[in-house]
From TrEMBL:
Listed transmembrane segments: 12-38, 44-62, 74-93, 99-118
Protein name stated in the entry: MerC family mercury resistance protein
The UniProt record lists the keyword Transmembrane: yes
Swiss-Prot/TrEMBL keywords: Membrane, Transmembrane, Transmembrane helix
Length: 123
């Protein structure tokens, strides 16, 4: 069971990092490579990241909570991170806030998963 939780946290951190990379690096690459610009600006990419991140985060945190009760701060930071990702993917409240919200959500989720992996390893 511990190996599965480690894999889930590692996968969630990797997905959050991929999301962060998408938001920060792809616009720079898009300027140099017009072909990547089409993919970087595709709205379906944001929705896909949320569709993958939400169940994976939920499952990882559920498993972690079953093993040892999670503090409310961990659950809150994960929920806020997912909500920021969802808001960024939906372009809410504006298209201009999409990148900052997505970056903040990705960092918050990655930090929560990293903290959970550290906590599990420590116990």
């Amino acid at each position: 069971m511990k190996r599965t939780s480690t894999l889930l946290d590692a996968s969630a951190i990797a997905l959050s990092s991929l999301c962060l990379l998408h938001c920060l690096a792809l616009p720079l690459l898009a300027a140099a490579l017009p072909l990547l610009g089409v993919w970087a600006e595709a709205e379906w990419v944001h929705g896909l990241f949320v569709i993958i991140a939400a169940p994976m985060t939920g499952f990882a945190l559920w498993r972690a909570h079953r093993q040892q009760r999670l503090p409310a701060a961990a659950v809150t930071s994960a929920v806020v991170g997912l909500l920021l990702l969802l808001a960024g993917a939906a372009g809410w409240p504006s298209h201009d806030s999409e990148t900052p919200m997505t970056v903040a959500g990705s960092l918050l989720l990655a930090a929560t998963h990293a903290w959970n992996a550290w906590r599990r390893h420590r116990h």
